[in-house]
Amino acid sequence: MPGKNKHLLRYLEPKIRQLLTKKFSGLILGPRQVGKTTLVRDLLEKFDNKIEIFLQNPKVRLETEVDPSAIIRQVKASRIKPLVFVDEAQKVPEIFDSAQFLIDEGSAQFIFTGSSARKLKRSKVNLLPGRIKRFHLDPLLWGELGWIKKSSLGDLTLKNINRKTGYTFEDSLIFGSLPLIISLSDEDKRDIIKSYAEIYIEEEIRAEAISRKIGAFSRFLELAARESGTSPNFSKLSNESGVSQPAVKEFYRILEDTLIAERVDPYLKNARKRILSMSRYYFFDLGVRNSLAKIPLEKNTIHAQKGVLFEHAVILEIIRRIKVLNKNYKVCFWRTAGGAEVDCIIDRGSSVIPIEIKSSKYISASEIKGLKIFLNDYRKLASHGYVITMGEKPERVSDNITAIPWFYL
User: Fold this and answer.
1) Do 308 and 212 fall within a single domain?
2) Helix (H, G, I), strand (E, B) or coil at 283
3) Whether 120 and 160 share a structural domain
4) Distance between CA atoms of 51 and 78, rounded to whole angstroms?
5) Three-class SS state of 26
6) Do 80 and 217 share a domain, yes or no?
7) Under 8 Å CB-to-CB from 195, ≥6 apart: which residues?
8) Is residue 160 located within the same domain as residue 96?
9) CA torsion sign, 20 to 319 to 270 to 389?
């Protein structure tokens, strides 16, 4: 088992290293505490000509807000072209204008990180189209934790880049996979994850200028976390949180824009059966979701919510792989008015991969009824379907359906 400070490789590292080598500029978006700052600082360690601006520091943020063009003067004072690292760039969006001037002039290279696309959108910030490459960093993927035995999902295949750390898949169902918790004791994991919600509410939500609704938002956040992975009932959430339905919808947009929740839309292509069209939302990390939902961060949680937690884990892994591999795919679900359902549809444009997710080890015919219906209705787009299980070995369930253990994903 690695020591507490053991460096875990990330799939994004080679891409950022290549970016730095080619003198391009980049923006790395991702939720808080997924390792953006650590990743960039590690890669910049050998660079002598760097300027670092940490906008999380109130003093630095205030100075930059007062004079966002100060970075231009700092760069001009440098004898050699510097590499400028701006951490939590959304806190002072005006800095992007200064960056554009310097990038266009060829005077500096920039790496930005950010944890909220919302403030950038609302500020109508100049995101330097055509000038910077964008990346996304999530909590640790299975291959970053050494859990993949044999990947079987075609062009979404990944290989392990780290050895197993001693942190297990079952641990992740309770505590999630934020990098900073992997080597901590269970007690410390609980403390870190619980404080995440407090920091998120205090800093991100107050920054969205809805302080007057912070009590209602806190109630909504717990309810939304409990509903994570389902299509939310806005009327029910409105009644239970004490805010209007339009406010509930706005709260969900905040979760999405601050990268706390992933939206999964229904698959709607030319089905013969009427499709239910309400989107689903999955919180970005299971530990954060469990804590926000006031679910005990204990081993018994797995037994009480095994199916929900397992589905979350698989859906999040698929979404993260699509981002890491830079695929232009969309993750959807499929459910008809008649009750036929498939948990995950990977829409690749010209073809789709339907995936059912079951937390049991063995699959009965009744459990894949929806998958069979989908394969029949969409046989021109889907040639094969999968069932992801907690079993030990792959099994051919039918001519066009294979059940695979989660570590074969």
Assistant:
1) yes
2) strand
3) no
4) 10
5) strand
6) no
7) none
8) no
9) positive
d(CA 216, CA 195): 19
Assigned token pair, 378: 């969409």
CB 259 within 8 A of CB 120: no
Provide the number of structural domains found in the chain.
2
Q: Do the Cβ atoms of 110 and 103 come closer than 8 Å?
A: yes
d(CA 72, CA 204): 28
pLDDT at 333 (0 to 100): 95
The number of residues making up the chain comes to: 409
At 330, give phi and psi (nearest 5°). Answer: -125, 135
Angle at alpha carbon of residue 225, lines to 185 and 88, rounded to 5°: 70
* Cα end-to-end distance, the chain, whole Å: 24
> Phi/psi zone of residue 377: left (φ > 0), alpha (ψ -120 to 50 degrees), beta?
alpha
DSSP 154: G
Does residue 305 fall inside a structural domain?
Answer: yes
Strand partners, 86: 53, 112
Q: Which residues pair with 388 in a beta bridge?
A: 357, 404
Q: Is the pLDDT of residue 30 over 70?
A: yes
Q: Which two tokens stand for residue 208?
A: 């969205």
Contact by Cβ (8 Å): 162, 145? yes
Residue-level pLDDT at 2:
39
Q: Are residues 188 and 326 in the same domain?
A: yes
Q: Which domain range does residue 126 map to? A: 13-136
Sheet of strand 25-29, all strands in order from the earlier edge strand to the far edge:
50-54, 83-87, 109-114, 25-29, 132-136
Cα distances (angstroms) measured from residue 98 to each of 50, 72, 73, 134, 199:
16, 6, 10, 18, 29
Tell me: do 372 and 266 sit in the same domain.
yes
Q: Read off the CATH number of the domain in which 63 is found.
A: 3.40.50.300
Q: What does pTM read for this prediction?
A: 0.92
Residue-by-residue DSSP string for 302-340: HHHSHHHHHHHHHHHHHHHHHHHTT---EEEEEEBTTS-
Amino acid at 180: L
Is residue 274 pLDDT above 60, yes or no?
no
User: Percent of the chain, pLDDT > 70?
Assistant: 90
Query: Is 129 part of any domain?
Result: yes
Cα 239 from Cα 243, distance rounded (Å):
7
Q: Which of 136, 157, 178 is the last residue of a domain?
A: 136
Q: Cα separation of 315 and 311, whole Å?
A: 6
